């Protein structure tokens, strides 16, 4: 997967998963499946109205000791 450098020298993935239509258990599963497939960048926004399943998915990812980039627009 291609990455771009940030001014902190961190590397952010160039390709991410958009979560606009990811709701309920399907949204939760989609994020976990994408993470397992190698996605490490996710696009989230308050306007998507899916905070609960996304929160559950990222809590699961974080508690497993893994890391992901999350872009959130409030």
TrEMBL record:
InterPro entries: Aldo/ket_reductase_CS, NAD(P)_OxRdtase_dom_sf. This is Aldo/keto reductase. The lineage of its organism: Eukaryota, Metamonada, Preaxostyla, Oxymonadida, Blattamonas.
């Amino acid at each position: 997967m291609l990455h771009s450098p940030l001014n902190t020298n961190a590397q952010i993935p160039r390709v991410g998963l958009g979560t606009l239509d990811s709701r309920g258990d399907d949204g939760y599963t989609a994020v976990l499946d994408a993470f397992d497939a190698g996605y490490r960048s996710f696009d989230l926004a308050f306007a998507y109205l899916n905070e609960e399943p996304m929160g559950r998915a990222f809590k699961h990812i974080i508690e497993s000791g893994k890391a992901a980039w999350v872009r959130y627009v409030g």
